[in-house]
Each structure stands twice: as C-alpha cells, then as structure tokens.
Amino acid sequence: PTEELVTLMWSFVVSIYSIGGLLGSLSAGYLSVRFGRKKAMLLANIPALLSATLMGLSRLCGSFEMIITGRLFSGVCGGLALNIHLMYAGECAPRKLRGLIAITASTAIAIGKFVGFALGLREVLGADALWPILMAANALPALIQLLTLPFFPDSPRYLLIDKKDKEGCIKAVKQLWGDGDHVAEIDDMMAEQEAICGQKAKSVCDLFRDKAVRWQLITLFLVSSCMQLIGVNVV
Prior knowledge:
Blueprint: H1 3-34, H2 37-43, H3 45-61, H4 64-92, H5 98-119, H6 131-135, H7 139-148, H8 156-162, H9 166-177, H10 183-195, H11 204-209, H12 214-227
C-alpha cells in the first residue's frame, strides 16, 4: 500500500477506540438500569473478549481490518466498564469510604497504562513476533472479572431504588459491609427513593440545564480536561 494509505489505516486503528468508547459510554446508563450494575459489568466483558480474539488472530489471518474492529470493541468495553464500575463501586461502598473507592478507577487506569507501556517494550511483548499476544492481553482482566464478579452481590442502591427489592438490598448490604448496624445508610437510600419517585430519568441535556449540579459538572469538566493535557495520551 502507499504511504498515504498506511497513514490512513493507522489513523483508523488509533482513533476507532475513542468512537467505541463514545458508543459504550452512551449505552452504560441504559444497560446499568436494564440489567443491573453487576450484570452490565459482566456484559462489558463480551466486547473485551471479542476484541482480544480479533486482534490476537489478526496476524494469523493477515487482516488489518480485524485490528480496527477489535479496537472498536475494546473502546466499547472501556466506555461501558469505566462508567458502570464507578456506579457499582460507589453504590457498594459505605458512605465513609465512598470517595476512596471511587478513586480506585483512576488508580486502575494509571496502573493499566503503566502495565501496557511495560508490556509493549521490545524486550517483553513488543517484539515483531509477539505483538498479537500483546494486543490480546486485555482478555486476561476480562476473564478474571468473569470468574470473580458473580460471587459479589448487586448494588444495594440498584436493588432498592430500581428493583424495589428491600430484602435483597438488606442482604447485599450485610454481605458487603458485614452484620453491623446499617440502618442509617438504608434510610438514606429509602429517602432518595421517595425523593425521585415518579421522576423520569434525566438526559445529558437535562444534566447541563440542572443548576443544582452546575458547579460539580464544571469541576469534573475542568479536571477531566486537564487530564488530557498532561502528556500521557500523547505518549
């Protein structure tokens, strides 16, 4: 192929991940309510395993299209998993640990990027003969989650507010936090359930128009924007 075509192919390989991430992010809200946080996280492993299979076999099949498609599925998994993970982890954590637990997502992303850079060294998996294994490496965390997550309960908040299952909520709380006195936390969820009773789910446009969360939204936007400018994504 010509140099221009090679550049175009590489551009698709790199940028298609972000398009997949957008699709996954837009689907996360629906799936997390339709199937629950836990099942939605398990479903997010399907595009991860598909992407690993496609990219891992791309050299054997001699198809760069498989890499592009695999990157798309990988992006869908990233968009789904990041959003649903934050919901699930935050809702499963007791109030005093909620902020700390939510930060684990950022920590895991940083560790994942570091591991990716390390595995990509020529002395590890970056060699010409080993890059298909490197591109299929995301199957490992997906398989670990598929094997371990079924042993965890669903989000107590989801069970109480979305499923109206108070008994299931109490059982999940005891499994996650132990047999202590958690009446105050459950009462908070009950109060939230009553407050949002009869309200329709907010869209993205509703979120931008809601003055009650205006400053929180601006703060998150500024922090996320600054993260894109620190050089990690350029590397």
